Batch of 4 targets.
Target 1
Amino acid sequence: MGKLWNRHQARLLLARWQETYDIYAPVRMPGDGCFSDTDTVRYGLIDSLEEIVWDQKSDYSFKEALLPISETLFYFTDDNASVPEAPKKKRLIFLRSCEMNALRRLDQMYLNNGPEDFYYKRIRQDARFVLMGCDTPFASCFCASMGTNTCEGYHAYVHPDGDRFYLDIPDRELAACADGLAAEDASQPVKSVTKDAVSVKIPDALPENAATLDLWKDYSSRCISCGRCNFVCPTCTCFTMQDLFYRDNDHGRAGERRRVWASCQVDGYTDMAGGICFRKDPGERMRFKVLHKISDYKKRFGYHMCVGCGRCENICPEYISYTECLNRLDAAARSSAEGGEQ
């Protein structure tokens, strides 16, 4: 049982939360879209309730609120190195059910896949998450097929209802901020969607020739290797390192090392010493990404890496359909099981 808040009460609660937390949510950024005179919706630091975009899926995922696109790991000189201070405030992040499930994938890679990542952990351990209810699936969403339309572990749940907001706050720290604010008891509205925007079938088992199927060749000429699909994905975790040398000092012998998002779809990602490159062709890189999302990761951890948010499909400038690729892969698997060829 939660409570129904009017807009004024919700504003007061948000203001109280802001005393302790930097609050991140989907916001509209005018003129920042891929095409001329278009907007984008991505995660940003908010000051007011009115900034939050409720009725549209964000073009970029929540992960940049936890994992900066470019993050300084340490500063260095000839004799010393120092780690930047941690953020002074905790973070409160509004997200969808698929993204709450994606958080499990990020935690798996940065906290449980070997030694804990110091930089990720110090932000993650103080973060709180507010689940945003979904009434209907957004374009290209297939979270129901991936089992990520429901989730656990959120600290508060919010669902807009006209000019009012349904709020359920199981977290004691967040709930304490609501003390003294009058709100009426209300029954919980529908928390998650039950059907997908597109029909997607993930193959139960891949055919033995999955890596050499002809379908991958179709992407060799279409994919331009821009990497946007990886950058908007809430579960992609790859990065590269960059050293920035300052020039306003003695011989430029001081600087900083940064961790920067990287993409397995970009040419040169797998380059090694000696001129070795494992995946030179865009079709090969597409194959690697898809099989990793719905097969390789699951073999290792027991659940799919993909959460069905559909952002990769929405952002692609070449209109490559990730969901269609999955369905073609499933068709190839069924054909192989029946003794046919693909």
Target 2
Amino acid sequence: MSAFKAYDIRGIYNADFNRDDVYKIGFHLAQMMHTDTILVGRDARVSSDEIFDALTQGIRDAGVNADDAGLCTTPYIYWTTALKKYGCSVMITASHNPKEYNGLKISRENALPVGYDSGLQVIEERMKAPITPLLRKGVIRKVDYKNDYMDFLLRYKSDLDGLKISMDCSNGMASLFVKQLFGEQPHYIYDTIDCTFPNHEPNPLDPESTEDIRTLVKKTNSDIGVIFDGDADRVMFIDEQGDFISPDLIIALLAHYWLEERQMKGVVIQDIRTSKSVGEYIRQFGATTITWRVGRAYAAPRLRDMDGLYGGELAGHYYAREFFYSDSALMTALIVLRIVQRFKKEGVSLSQLIKRISRYENSGEMNFQLERKDDAMKAIVTHFSAQEKPLQQMDFDGYRLEFKEWWFNIRPSNTEPYLRFIAEATSKTLLQQKIAEVEDIINKLK
């Protein structure tokens, strides 16, 4: 079944997977996880209710109970899983994908992610086996911990009076909570839940999706723009000039809260695509950055294993020890607004603060569609290694090679048919030269 991915189960509903598949997933998941109750939440996509019914029927036929968390965000499910000590949970969502998609994000105890290497492969294999429902069926009960969740998040809110905020909820699940957290102060757009996504795709990394929030920031003279993805596990930011901030730089910005204001200690995790500026900036606060693989299925367990303080990814996921080593867009937004408010009082704008962090020319992540991904990666690594001996080489998520004046990462996408490339250099001329060499190599392999 093509819906099984590295991080979750996801695809076009009734094309890549269907109701019968979901029933089998529920049954085999319940048998595999050795727990008496599974927490299940969902977003508001058209197919989510049907998927919920099939999934919970499978869970119940395996003799396991299903706790119905109703409509919610993905981080709410992570938080509830860990705090209420569930042995397993499922969030029904396709996150930032278009409306015809849906999927299942599965976690085990302590909100640890279940990826393909840590359980999804077993479920996929078991789906070929016949199912015999148990005579003793599980039950469904409704649960609601949202008030407790709001109380937890509000610990991170500061006095935002005088801070001009624009906020785009992408018609997604962040709309459930934003008014309780941020009040009526921000200029909101698309803050009603409609997971047909009538205004733009729920993917803040798509430049078209940020056009309206960038326009709103400039129109309202806001100090900052905030945009959430469909299930509110990712958040991205716009500066007061209407420019999109590369999400990896926010990892450095967060140091002003965790490391400076809170005076906390611990390593910071970043993914293999992260700007060198981030580690250099964080170093001033006495912390060390650790580079690791892309995706929550890898980042969250790594942060937990190290008892790391916090971390983030280029895709806009931000993890925290205090959020059970999981990612929360709303928590991150509260902290970033707190930091921006502090610096505004000191006469420093968000764009000025980001300029203090970012020191290099960056290509942004570039996508190449081709069949010979492995051949292309090896050819690019060989090409540049022959020019100059790398100062450092990482090979755990594609390849990252670092040289004296530039670095690059090339990796196959785990969720889409692309080869992804990102580079950073000390000058725009050098960066453009290296990109041209990469494009030449890839074009020859198409």
Target 3
Amino acid sequence: MKKLIYLLAASLVMLAMFSCQGEKTNAIKVISYNVRCSGGDGENHWDKRKHASINMIHDEKPTIFGLQEANPDQMQYLVENLPEYGYIGVGREDGVESGEHMSIFYLKDEVELLDGGTFWLSETPEQPSKGWDAACKRSCTWTKLKMKSTGKEFVYMNTHLDHVGVEARKQGLALIVERANEIVPEGTVFLTADFNALTTNPIFDDLKAVMKDAREEAPVTDRRGTYNGWNAENTSNPNCVIDHIFYRAAEAHSFRVLCDKNYGAPYISDHYPVVMEATF
């Protein structure tokens, strides 16, 4: 019964999205997905779940999606198996290939890439570097995109905050807010990430002043845990809600944690993807 109620609510949301009169609006689906690095993990090794990641993308058909923790071999597999998507992103270790990628993928039939790049969450953001008390180099990929149907432009940013450094998370997020305002002082922005923090954390104060939290704003929403650690019981753990989508100058219609469907493996990652549907 719960599933039926959710489906009915989602259907009403979609009807509202596509029945707008007057000025043309864009319907967009955004996914944030920490794929988990390709090494180790035994029965959950990337080779045993990589096909399930492709199945998830084909099933959801996001307009845009951002990855966290994607190693070069994972990037190669995803690019080869998702030819309908263009992408942008570099390795965080050398700014070229090495290390984890915070890549952004966009559906080529619907979206055109106008501009984009990468900066590092550090005191020297233009070069591969580790910032403040971070355990790792952390980067943010940004894009300026255009919807082909209407010509409307928007900005999409994707990152992964440090899992250890408290100051690094705070200062890294402040830098992202600063850069977002520089890239597009006004207009639509989407930000996805594994933030490694609950949104009640004070590090989000500056971000909340300029962007909205899709989980909180969408009329159809989902508050389940996003970090599963290969254990489905973590969906009910409020401390595991660490993957978020923020936005500006758009209307959120639904927000979901993709934890209910088997895409061909018990787990597609140690994180569940999160998805937002919106118009702008």
Target 4
Amino acid sequence: MNPGPFDLAATLTCGQCFRWEEGEDGSFSGVAGGRELTLSPLAPEKAAGADPFWRRYFDLDLDYGALRQELAALSPVLAEAAAFAPGIRILNQEPWEALCSFILSQNNNIPRIKGIVARLCACFGQPLPGGGRSFPGPEALAGLSPEDLAPLRCGFRARYVIDAAQKVCGGLNLEELRPLPLAEAREALMTITGVGVKVADCTLLYGLHRLDAFPMDVWMKRAMAVLFPGKQPEDFGPAAGVAQQYIFHYSRCHPELF
């Protein structure tokens, strides 16, 4: 097994997931797919790669070195961003969890998003052997009212989450979005109340591993304007989503550029 660089901290703190916590020793503990895991920062690819579920979750079989070479050839600035954090990987998250989490992420910062997601799981998830809670499926939320979600303190987002759960339970098959043209898959997600382009693209990239999706939040709009004036997401090709992560992380770590 030779997965190439795998930066555990950069991957888990770059805004693509919300159920991992860092320990004082640099380890990370989290829950995904109803499974609990703690990973040491020392050779995490070995521990994660030994289990097929976590190997896929951390995308250890994709050759990111080849992708970085392709992206670096597009722009010296992108080459620098890719070289800054070569170990970032796009997680293979459960599509419903990604959709629900990024609905809750709207107009929020990461610590608050993590708090809301934690309360959602504590209130409606199933208990796990290690003491954690699973992420509640859409069927657990579809019959609720916004008042039922009041303990989450997620405000206006409550009715969006419920509408998403109802639509998924009612026939919106997230897995069927994987092979669709990007615009068509995005439009299907945007039939959900409160889901705009950014949440749709986050769901596609982080939940369905659509590497052609390129989420644009405030940071990314600023980064694109300053670092890549005149460029559009599609200019980065089929691995645009990987480029997005490199650009996002590089920009956050270099605020002096803005």
